Amino acid sequence: MSSLDWFVFEVFGASVVAGFIGALGGLGGGILIVPLLTVGFGVDIRLAIGASIISVIATSSGAGAAYVRDHLTNIRVAMLLELATTVGAVTGAYLATRLKSDILFVIFGLTLLVSVVPLMFRLGEELPADVPDDALADKLRLHGEYPDAHLGRVVDYRVTGVRLGFPMMYAAGVVSGLLGIGSGVLKVLSLDTAMRIPMKVSSATSNFMIGVTAAASAGIYFWRGDVVPLIAAPVALGVLLGATLGARVLVRVSNRTVRYAFVPIVVVISIEMFLRGLSVT
């Protein structure tokens, strides 16, 4: 095999792992693809972001459909908040043309590190407790239920914090368009922390949303020539396969397990990307 063939094969294999982890945490494979390509394979960050945007759409197609089938996704919440993330994604894609690569690395690292802090204080929580009433959530009928294979029962849950979750989703959309990561980490943060939705439902709903968010900014990256088929194709196929496998695993594990897997991965990646942006690594 030529060096080019090995490159494609290795990128595909690494993307399978990224898609699997991304589907479990509701992150979208993009959160791992950008550092994977830039740090692991030396790809320019703008080309990595372009490939990541495509992988995010693939993740949403693979995992998102499976989660809807398994009744984990809160579609009402997703469609409401997608209004904010789509506008944010277009804003972020526009800003990306006016910022240097080093700045993007630093923003990426800081975004991940800050977003994971609230989850660290609730690592052991299986289901949200003492969720306050929210008149807007009641009016929009955002509350739901899902079958939890781990607990062996159907779990009813209530949604709160809609007025806080909406602007947070706009910010998530800006980050998605700016960095090409699908902003799944910020979506999960909004759903789990601000709106107090169970972690597995947050992950599933995030996966459902990230494809639409990414598609809103993908056209801009195509137009700029940042989507290179030789990179984007193996990434998208690998992430799609990994996301499909991850979706099958998520329905069988606990909410605590999802958090324990999610937090350390994001912390390591955020530090690495932040240091790279400062030219330390």
Q: Determine the structural class based on helices, strands and strand pairing.
A: mainly alpha
Order of helices and strands: HHHHHHEEHHHHH
Rg of Cα set: 18 Å
Mean pLDDT across residues: 80
User: How many helical elements?
Assistant: 11
The shape is: globular
> Which ranges are low-confidence, i.e. pLDDT below 50, for 5 or more consecutive residues?
none
**Largest sheet: spatial strand order:** 1-2
How large is the share of residues in beta strands? under 5%
Commentary on this structure:
The chain is mainly alpha-helical and 281 residues long. It has one domain (3-277). It is built from eleven helices and two strands. It has helices spanning 3-25, 30-41, 45-69, 75-96, 101-120, 135-140, 162-179, 184-194, 199-224, 229-250, 255-277, and strands spanning 144-148, 153-157. A two-stranded antiparallel sheet has the order 1-2. The longest helix is centred in the last third of the chain and has 26 residues, at 199-224. It is globular. The mean pLDDT is 80.
